Amino acid sequence: MRWKTGRRSSNIEDRRGAPTLGGLGSGRRLPLRGKSVGGGLGTIVLVLVAMYFGVDPSIFLGGGGGIGLAPTTQTQRPANLSPEQRQLADFVSVVLADTEDTWHAIFKASGDTYEEPALVLFSGSTRSGCGVGEAEMGPFYCPADHKVYIDLSFYEDLKRRHGAPGDFAQAYVIAHEVGHHVQTLLGISPKVQEAKRKVSRTEANQLSVRQELQADCFAGLWANHADRARNILEQGDVEEALTAATAIGDDRLQKQARGYVTPDSFTHGSSEQRVRWFKRGLSEGTLAACNTFKADRL
Fold first, then answer.
1. Are 287 and 217 in contact (CB under 8 A)?
2. For 157-221, what is the HEC assignment?
3. Which H helix or E strand runs over 111?
């Protein structure tokens, strides 16, 4: 992925090195290196299966509405980071900026204004508007505070445990979570949450699957627009994203965790479904193409 010359987002909150849980500060938004332009068995297994790239961790964490986070006096990035850790954080900032540019353009074309989310880097655990987030959950988006949360050690897990290495696989993770933010802005997420309260657990799971697959499609949509506008894709990049989408399918995660698969409990979609919807967004590049809620076949 061609990223090193891309602009860096200013919407980064770096909490790495901050105290975990007790006495946790919010982490001040910090621009990373470069120019900045404004703008789910046990509980852990359940979380890994049901919440990898999840939309609302409060369901599993016992979190509620919002958690007031006290300001911190942090004024610079955490010390004692390796060059690799610094470069990865820099990469994440570029990818976030690229999603900002893409979604600003898409919203503007529809006569709307895109609200940029913040992306929180943390280590181990952190507080969010949806409750306490743990590294074991993987990346997540919290609709209560419009923030994406990620412990960058997830990328090592993605590579070693799930066999999905590569920078574009990493970018796909971020683009998927930003896709949940787009769903919130478009009013899709609130409607899904309301509908889920009125139906059976199996039917609620099916709604969750459609929501997650739409976020996958939105990630593909981002890649389509970003490559056309800024030529970011290199040979093998798409394959990296497809490998990542395959790795975090509910069927594969359930098989790894307990040795069998229960389709009625899927909340994110099978590997095949996740790949299909990412590819659809990538090939068609339109919001209409990503309407999983109207699709007869997922």
1. no
2. HHHHCCCCCCHHHHHHHHHHHHHHHHHHHCCHHHHHHHHHCCCCHHHHHHHHHHHHHHHHHHHHH
3. none
Domain total in the chain: 1
Residue 2 inside a domain? The answer is no
Provide the domain limits for residue 38: 8-294
Would residue 220 count as lying in a domain? yes
Phi-psi region of 238 (alpha: psi -120 to 50; beta: other; left: phi over 0): alpha
Largest CA distance in the chain: 52
CA dihedral for 233, 235, 238, 240, sign (positive or negative)? negative
The 10 Å Cβ neighbour count of residue 115 is 14
- Tell me if 173 sits within 8 A of 151, measured CB to CB: no
Q: Go through 226-238 and write b for each residue having 16 or more CB atoms within 10 A of its CB, e for each that does not.
A: bbeebebbeeebb
Asked if residue 247 belongs to a domain, the reply is yes
pLDDT range class, residue 194, cuts 50, 70, 90: very high
Query: Has this prediction a pTM greater than 0.85?
Result: no
267 occurs within a structural domain: yes
pLDDT at 62: 37
Question: Which of helix, strand or coil describes residue 54?
Answer: strand
Residue 297 contacts by C-beta under 8 Å, 6 or more apart in sequence? Answer: none
pLDDT for 59 beyond 50: no
Residue pLDDT, tens place only, 233-263: 888 888 888 888 888 899 999 988 899 999 9
| 270 HSE (CA, 13 A, CB side) | 10
Cα-Cα-Cα-Cα dihedral sign, residues 122, 187, 191, 68: positive
Residue 161 CA to residue 164 CA, distance in Å, equals 8
d(CA 235, CA 239): 9
Confidence of residue 101 (pLDDT cuts 50, 70, 90): very high
Helix (H, G, I), strand (E, B) or coil at 112: coil
The reported pLDDT for the residue numbered 167 is 86
